[in-house]
Design a protein that fits this description.
Layout lengths: L3 E10 L2 E11 L4 E5 L6 H8 L5 E7 L2 E2 L5 H7 L1 E4 L11 H7 L8 H7 L1 H5 L10 H13 L5 E5 L7 H18 L2 E5 L3 H7 L2 E6 L2 E7 L5 H7 L3
Helix pairs in contact: 3-6
Length: 228
Amino acid sequence: MSLLTVESLTASYGPVPALFGVGLKLDAGEVCALMGRNGMGKTTTVKAICRMIASSGGLRFAGRDLHGLPSHAVARLGVGLVPEGRRCFRDLTVEENLIAAARSGQWDFGRVTELFPRLGERRNQRAASLSGGEQQMLAIGRALMTNPRLLILDEATEGLAPIVRQEIWAAIDRIKNETGMAILLIDKSLRELASVADRAVIVARGETVWSGAMDALTPDITERYVGV
């Protein structure tokens, strides 16, 4: 049984339809790239999974129907979200940000700061004083501290310096290889996605238009649905 199953998912922002039939499946330990051009429904799909927007259709996590659950209950089931735009608690220190989200499990303060040493060095600094890249590391670390079964990363490297992007991609690769955690990734870098993802799902105009193994993703398909 798949860890996450999304079938014929529809959603709207008030009277404006946004999703018309998104489908994807993600197994435990699998990394899936959720791809598509801007405005095609990727982030809305993530919001629906995390119950941040009302939706209809099939939506199950670890055998549990997510419809009707508040977002905090979905998080407690084991869904960890790193949202677009980081959204750290700016007035809290690095350590306080991490501890605020902590649940028992293999990911604790020591392991997160081993993955991102900069966070250990800045443990007593307020999040507002960190660079954009450090705030992104903090957002990822905070999600890991919930010890999720599924980690969702929405544009985790957007707008960051190349060297910081490399650090974050290396961390994602380590999470995949060392933990077996399921990961759902949204990012614009096809090269980096191809290096870590097992499968890809492409959405266009609010519905799934292609899904399959990452190595089956041809240049023609990416040019048609992903390229600018």
